[in-house]
Amino acid sequence: MSSPVLQLAPDDNVVVAMRKLVPGEAVTLGELVITVKDAIPFAHKLAVQDLAVGAKVTKFGVPIG
């Protein structure tokens, strides 16, 4: 079974949804289990850790926002 998320670089703090994710769904990334809080459409980002307002979002190993 393939993962419903894709981490593009090991230091990224977001992953990409490979399908629609629904609230309450548990997503496993290595040893980390993330519970989806809101619906995430296909190809959108999901944070793998709590991010403070103004924190850097890292994707592809570089800050994107």
Structure report:
The structure is a single chain. By secondary structure, the chain is mostly beta strands. 0% of the residues lie in helices and 32% in strands. It contains no helices and seven strands. The protein has strands spanning 5-6, 14-17, 26-29, 32-35, 45-47, 58-59, 62-63. The chain has a three-stranded antiparallel beta sheet with strand order 1-2-5, with no helix packed on it. Strand 1 and strand 2 (14-17) form a beta hairpin. It is globular and about 30 Å long. The mean pLDDT is 94.
Which characteristics define this entry?
7 strands; globular; 3-stranded antiparallel sheet; mainly beta; 65 residues
Instruction: Write down the secondary-structure element order.
Output: EEEEEEE
Going across the biggest sheet, name each strand in turn: 1-2-5
Regions with pLDDT < 50 over 5+ consecutive residues?
none
Radius of gyration in whole Å, from Cα? Answer: 11 Å
Structural class: mainly beta
Please outline the major beta sheet: 3 strands, antiparallel
Tell me what portion of residues adopts beta-strand conformation.
Answer: 25-35%
Summed over residues and divided by their number, the pLDDT gives a mean of 94
- Count of DSSP-assigned helices: 0
Helix content: under 10%
- Overall, the morphology is globular
Record field, number of beta strands:
7
